[in-house]
Design brief:
185 residues, mainly beta, Jelly Rolls, six-stranded antiparallel β-sheet, five-stranded antiparallel β-sheet, 13 strands, RmlC_Cupin_sf, RmlC-like, isomerase, dTDP-4-dehydrorhamnose 3,5-epimerase, RmlC-like_jellyroll
C-alpha cells in the first residue's frame, strides 16, 4: 500500500509506502512498479544513485538533465534528514519558477517524486545523511545542468545561508533562473 500526496505543484508528489514493523525494526517496499502504476505513476527507472553527505548543511543542487536525457527522480533518505526541493523550470508552465520543499527523513519514510522539467536539490539537516534516488535516464554529462540554489528570485527558505552552505565547486557556479537557457518549454 502506498499513499500519494499532492503538493503545491501538482506534478510533484509526496509518496509514503506502508511500513511493517515489529521488535526487529521494519520492512517496506519503497518501489513496486505494478503498485505505483496502479496509482498512476508508471515510470521506467534505469539507475539508482546513492549519496552520503558528512556535515549537516551540505547542499547538493539544484540539478537537472536536459532532453533527451531528462530525468524523473524518486528521492528518499535512508539515514538522516534533508530539506528536499524541486523547482519548476518548464517555461510554459503556470508554476514556472515556483518550488516545493519537503522534509524527507529515514524516520518519516517519505519519498519525493520530481518529474522531468524540474531542478532538484537538497540540504542535509543532520550529519552523515544518506540519500538514494531512482532516475529514468542514465547520467549524461553533456546534458547535466544546474540552477543557483540561492537565487533570490526562487525565494527558497533554505536552512543555511550561502556562506554557511557546504557546496561543490560546480554548485557554486550555476546560473540564476533568469539567466537559465530554455531547456523545457
Amino acid at each position: 500500500m502506498l499513499t500519494i500526496e499532492d503538493t503545491a505543484i501538482p506534478a510533484v508528489k509526496i509518496i509514503t509506502t506502508r511500513r511493517f514493523g515489529d521488535e526487529r525494526g521494519f520492512f517496506t517496499e519503497t518501489w513496486n512498479r505494478r503498485r505505483f502504476a496502479e496509482a498512476g505513476i508508471d515510470l521506467d527507472f534505469v539507475q539508482d544513485n546513492h549519496s552520503l553527505s558528512g556535515p549537516a548543511g551540505t547542499v547538493r543542487g539544484l540539478h537537472f538533465q536536459s532532453p533527451p536525457f531528462a530525468q524523473d527522480k524518486l528521492v528518499r533518505v535512508v539515514r538522516g534528514r534533508i530539506l528536499d526541493v524541486a523547482v519548476d523550470i518548464r517555461r510554459s508552465s503556470p508554476t514556472y519558477g515556483r518550488h516545493v520543499a519537503v522534509e524527507l527523513s529515514a524516520e518519516n519514510g517519505r519519498q519525493l517524486l520530481v518529474p522531468v522539467g524540474f531542478a532538484h536539490g537538497f540540504c542535509t539537516l543532520e550529519p552523515d545523511t544518506e540519500v538514494i534516488y531512482k532516475v529514468t535516464a542514465y547520467y549524461a554529462p553533456e546534458h547535466d545542468h544546474g540552477l543557483a540554489f540561492d537565487d533570490p528570485g526562487l525565494a527558497i527558505d533554505w536552512p543555511v545561508t550561502r556562506a554557511a552552505a557546504i557546496l561543490s565547486g560546480k554548485d557554486r557556479t550555476h546560473p540564476r533562473l533568469a539567466a537559465l537557457p530554455e531547456y523545457f518549454s
